[in-house]
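User: Here's a chain of 488 residues. Predict its fold as tokens.
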Amino acid sequence: MLSKSVVAVFFVLILLYGNLFIEVEAIGVNWGSQASHPLPPATVVRLLQANGIRKVKLFEADTKILGALSRSGIQVMVGIPNDLLAPIAGSVAVAERWVSQNVSAHVSSNGVDIRYVAVGNEPFLKAFNGTFEDITLPALQNIQSALIKAGLATQVKVTVPLNADVYQSASNLPSDGDFRLEIRDLMISIVKFLSDNQAPFTINIYPFISLYNDPHFPVEFAFFDGTGDPIDDNGRVYDNVLDANYDTLVWSLQKNGFGNLSIIVGEVGWPTDGDKNANMQYARRYNQGFMNRQRAGRGTPMRPGPMDAYLFSLIDEDAKSIQPGNFERHWGMFYIDGMPKYQLSLGNNGNGLVPAKDVHHMAKKWCVLAPSANVQDPQLGPSVGYACDHADCTSLGYGSSCGGLDLAYNVSYAFNSYYQVSDQLESACKFPGGISMITTRDPSVGSCRFKIMIKSDSSGGEPSAKMVLRRSASVLLLLLSMCMYIVL
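Assistant: Prediction complete.
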């Protein structure tokens, strides 16, 4: 039998360090896979484990990723993309087949700890113009029926990750919150269905997007330092937008009779590039501020206690759509090679993020503008356009990490991006007119990194199909700035 002194010491240790263990268990991350050269899934799983991350949210049911998560001790939320909602909504048999292939098979045979199925991804986003409004609830119902038939409904819960634009407040006070008028009846039906099945409401909250969309948004109110002007809502004081937004949802649920429904924050984070407000300093400030709150067990005025949340995101995705903005490819805490971007304590240790192990890079070679090239060469503009159409040039935008480069460096960055995504093929650095060359001298300057691609399963000599994109506005702006430079 333990002595009283031993029990007392043990009790003190729990008081001192118990919140640390709770915090590590509580935080999750989003693992996206839209990369030209993704890290092997097994490498990413080891990265998660090394950083004490025990929950992961996936946007689709990738067999290799789910296989790598087998018996890993990591809880999984597996997603159904929006383009699958229609067939699943239209047929219970399709839903049953999806559950059988993507949930049952991995839970029973591979020991994957799947806890949630995320049906769609922000399907009621205003930008979708109602495309998924009639099919999301039927898809949710059919997946639930399929889970019941598979005997998994107790273990695996359904949810729908929604954007924070599904609710609003006319006064900007959380207590005036309610669901958006044009989808209010639909939202109440979905909320009732979730409540009836003991399933959570999943919401994505992005203070960065508030800042991106509104140049007059108070910057300090986006962070957790308490330096912004607070909002007083009948005695409930809000010193940051995350708390105010979250409690607007709580009030929306409460007003419609579902005040006790559990909430998951499916995505929360800050990008590091692609916009003037997307940088390392702000990203670290935001994410560390959020983690400090989690560690301290702080919640919101309406819901005290740490949030059930997933940081967005784990690793950069250089093939992701940039329709919302160039920052979309830069949400990761880690670069595409698994190296940490900045120091961030998740509570697992005092040394910050742990990098991925056994990652192999290609040779230290870069493709740049040849010194002999003429900046007025008519081949220059089309060559840059081609390179950026097939690679990632989002760091060249205004206010981004490479936004201050001169013309030659702009061109070199574009050429190198294409060269690296093409697995350093010699032919990928042979732009017309001899205007490019391969160098072994790193052209990186200041905050602008000229990357070297990693070796991955997709390396094979041809540009990834995911990188064959429509010419973006950023490319056109780059070409325009080149023309202005030449004219001046």
